[in-house]
Amino acid sequence: MDKILNKYPLAFELLHGEVSVSEIVLVHGMAQEQETADSLEESWLPALAGGIRVAGYADLADRIWRNRHSGDRIEVRMAAYGDLFLTPGVQGSGDDLDDLGSLEHAVAESVTAEWLQRAAEREDHPDHKTAVRELGFLNPTHETQGIKEEAARVMINAATRLSWFGGGGAMAVAERLKKPLRQVTAYLTDQALRDEIQSRVLAHVGPETKVIVGHSLGSVVAYEIVAQHLPTRLPLLVTLGSPLGLRSIIYDRLQPQPPGYPEGARRWVNIADRNDLVAAEPDLTGLFERNRPTDAILESRWTVDNGAEAHKGEYYLGKREVGRPIAEALSE
Predict the structure, then answer these.
(1) Cα(313)–Cα(291) distance, rounded to whole angstroms?
(2) In this structure, is residue 96 part of a structural domain?
(3) pLDDT of residue 74
């Protein structure tokens, strides 16, 4: 535990009661730099309670949201880190990618390539035809594997034609694609930023913690913490809309390497909407079986339907497929 506190200064606040250890810790994803822990909790907690309620655990749902001010409440905290991307030098100026380094360009390019490939490879995907067409322009052989390197801007412009990004012109593109790409790239390439984000999560984690829920980029943060830094074993890790299956970009840059089952978790549940492009590979079992303890469980085959906003965190939380394992962990 001393090593954790030394590496993550914010965790020292636990010793002085300035940060609350929680039974459930939530870790948000990309493009939340204008939100705070309080504002995110106001939207995430009722969704979380709703998912637990539809799973058949109304009493636990009430203790999370409707009776959250009572002495019998279940403590839930958001580990917010979006403000770190507002710091000069971390996110850069504006939403374009012109000032990225060569490694950051490679990350942005490869992520969008994998998004296009996933849509192209699934005939039931709503953007299947569009993705195949765009890949054909980029790769005249019409192969969906082994795309030659293209300029990041060309790849991004192709990806923005997918309906997943919601249309709306350049402003929507900046909000839905460029900004998230910058944040993913920053997390993967800036170790000081990575450490600080993990510090903010660890500040809420203690022996009382039963569940950590990570959405989108937050699932990468949560995975790395459970794989490396927990002093005690966590009953449940939940990852939602996770890019952990983006093999060439996320998977190969995870810490520690090579990736495997996060041994700090007794149970890991990964859930993806079939049309969520961020969750490039919804079944993580083949990628994360290494070193899985014999008594540990990895469940990564469930899919949910989040409608038109396939990646929305609150929509994931409101599903019984998410609520049931969380309620089971709380009931242990």
Answers:
(1) 29
(2) no
(3) 97
DSSP secondary structure string for all residues of 187-250: HHH-HHHHHHHHHHHHTT-STT--EEEEETHHHHHHHHHHHHT-SS-BSEEEEES--TT-TTTT
User: What does the block give as tokens for 141?
Assistant: 């052989």
Contact by Cβ (8 Å): 101, 89: no
- Give the pLDDT band of residue 165 (cuts 50, 70, 90): low
Structural domain includes residue 311: yes
> Are the beta carbons of 240 and 313 closer than 8 angstroms?
yes
Confidence band (pLDDT; 50, 70, 90) for 3?
Answer: very low
The single-letter code of the amino acid at 235 is P
Q: How many domains does the chain have?
A: 2
Do 80 and 219 belong together in one domain?
A: yes
What is the residue-wise DSSP string for 250-309? TGGG-SSSS----TTBSEEEEEEETT-TTSS-S--TTTS-TT--TT-EEE---EE--TT-
The model's pTM is 0.82
What is the domain-level CATH number for residue 54? 3.40.50
**Per-residue pLDDT tens digits for 50-75:** 999 999 999 999 999 999 888 899 99
User: Could you tell me the residue range of the domain that residue 79 belongs to?
Assistant: 2-84+191-331
Q: Is 70 exposed, middle or buried (0-12, 13-18, 19+ CB in 10 A)?
A: exposed
pLDDT band with cut points at 50, 70 and 90 for residue 269: very high
47 in the same domain as 157: no
Q: Report the chain's mean pLDDT, rounded to a whole number.
A: 81
Tokens for 217, please give them.
């980029």
Same domain, 35 and 118: no
Is residue 95 a part of any domain in this protein?
no
pLDDT of residue 29: 94
d(CA 83, CA 69): 27
Q: How far is it, in rounded angstroms, from Cα 277 to Cα 180?
A: 13
**Residue 94 falls inside a structural domain:** no
